[in-house]
Amino acid sequence: MFSEETSTSLQLESKTARKSGLKSAVSSATNSAAENVKECRKFRLFARDRRSNLRFLVDSGADVSIFPATSQNKKKAEYQLYAANGTEISPYGIKMLNLDLGLCRDFQFSFIIADVTKEEHKCKTTILTPFGLYEFNVMSFGLKNAPATFQRFIHEVLRGLDFVFPYLDDILIASKSNQEHEIHLNLVLERLNTFGLRINISKSVFTVEEIEFLAYLITPQGSRPLPDKVQAIINYKRPENIQNLRTFLGILNFYRRYLKDAAKNQALLHEYLKGSKTKDKRKIQWTDEAEKQFEKCKNDLANATLLSFPNSELPLSLFTDASDTAIGAVLQQYENSTWQPIAFYSKKLNDTQQNYSTYDRELLGIYLSVKHFKRYLEGRAFTIYTDHKPLIFAFHQKLDKAAARQARQLNYISQFSTDIKYIKGENNIVADTLSRLTEVSSIDCDQIADAQTQDKN
């Protein structure tokens, strides 16, 4: 859980490492911004050991903990360590440290002693040219860990600007007015200039009401799939083999969060994929029902629901439901006197889950929905709505009376919310629809959308 800038974990930042890390950061900026790049380091989270006074750089996404090798501890280990890009890192054994981080007790960490000197990795970027061999001094395209490294850097550049949403070299600035947008734009440009970064004016768009961003259409009201992408899927020819069908479903599911009943409508199409292999060229024997499902999937995307932007100041709720064969959920926020959808979720149950009792299926629906939407729900107060009344007493019973699986699921749900309320099935129309896999032809998507708009409960 601790790391330096690589994909390793808990890296001691010695004077040499600090100079090396600073040199790496400065290489992506101009000489005029070299001094300002030092500000980048103050945004990183460090933990200091009170005994040794050593600082450790924290990275919660790392898998192992690394301690830098020195000339005294370079005894080759029998195992091998690999970086995120697949290159070998020489390990030199294990080192145990007891750290006093100022908490209620000491923590013991196991470190892998490894050689993570950055300068020697430059040789891995060597390219052959007519003029000889050259090494990159800055980040180049094509390296496996280049996107993650650049994303981390651009986050450090724009850290603290809550109106900016960067993804690699795409930067979205959201403002409420033209005056505010001008202020925001100046702040971003100043920050980019500080770090020696430049923008391509010909590829930039300024002061617009809606914009295409990462294959989505972003509007003041919310987001929806791009019209040209939707049109391409609508014009998609019926797949003739398994590989083409898998491609179609992959394209369609890129916008799955906008589809109210994805699991239901795609169930029959996924049946063709059972037992298939990679690049399977077997022909598909289309039935009339399968063709209707294929066309319905395309039409549902054409009528995709406009999803609202999450607002931490608005009340949040999670509506869930489970049928005999699937579970469904919709995450909503109370906006403009009505519940507005943020995202949809549905999942087909496997054979074992379909044999669960009604209580267990409904509980599983809540558990999987909370797990799916955890990025939205962490740190938020929200209410879970279900049409299965016994579940509202789930947290009033002793866990030792619950089955092991129930206890695990309730324990996970309780980390986010224990507020479960009952809602009649007739008022839980969206989640109920998402969980239904039978009687497909009886579902009217327009009626569902109208009911969702009018629902104020």
UniProtKB/TrEMBL annotation:
Domain Peptidase A2: 54-68
Signal sequence, start to end: none
GO biological process, any: DNA integration
Calcium among keywords: no
Matches recorded under Pfam families: RT_RNaseH_2 (PF17919), RVT_1 (PF00078)
Keyword RNA-binding in annotation: no
Gene3D superfamilies: 3.30.70.270, HIV Type 1 Reverse Transcriptase, subunit A, domain 1
Name this protein carries in UniProt: RNA-directed DNA polymerase
